[in-house]
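ok, trying the design again with the full structure, not the truncated one.
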């Protein structure tokens, strides 16, 4: 099930069922991104392939460029098709991709950013008390305002649990 297309009720149910909710990049948008990357990489690749019979000074550079672009396209294709980068919400906090994390204890708030440019999509910025920021794109979660409200609710629940645990000690 693609969690980014669901509502708060489905997210709550999944969190209680499995202990985490994973928002993978939605396949249709991933495919669109992959097409854009391939088109943008295709222009220099075609230029290099067209000039392969000309073994001039820049031949080695062109072949190296071709190899790098091809490797980048393959890596992006694998990531897109596997649904990366993912947003994971669990009892410890929020993680974007595999290296960016904001624990609930550091959660400060969310801000919905709507760029004025028609080319950029809206995204949600999650800030931590330590100044870290996670930028969650609409490719992961379709309804960003609902996602922000859900994260705020989960943070409130976490703080209440932490406070009640500390008061009982």
């Amino acid at each position: 099930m693609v969690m980014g297309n669901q509502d708060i009720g489905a997210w709550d149910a999944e969190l209680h069922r499995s202990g985490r909710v994973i928002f993978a990049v939605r396949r249709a948008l991933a495919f669109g991104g992959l097409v854009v990357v391939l088109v943008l990489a295709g222009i220099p690749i075609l230029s290099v392939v067209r000039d392969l019979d000309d073994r001039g000074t820049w031949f080695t550079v062109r072949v190296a460029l071709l190899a790098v672009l091809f490797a980048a396209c393959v890596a992006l294709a694998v990531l897109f098709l596997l649904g990366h980068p993912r947003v994971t919400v669990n009892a410890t906090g929020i993680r974007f991709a595999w290296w960016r994390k904001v624990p609930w204890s550091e959660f400060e708030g969310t801000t919905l950013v709507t760029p004025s440019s028609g080319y950029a999509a809206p995204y949600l910025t999650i800030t931590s008390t330590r100044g870290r920021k996670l930028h969650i794109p609409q490719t992961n979660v379709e309804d960003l305002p609902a996602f922000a409200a859900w994260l705020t609710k989960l943070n409130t629940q976490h703080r209440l649990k932490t406070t009640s645990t500390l008061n009982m000690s």
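Keeping the full-length input from now on. The radius of gyration is 21 Å.
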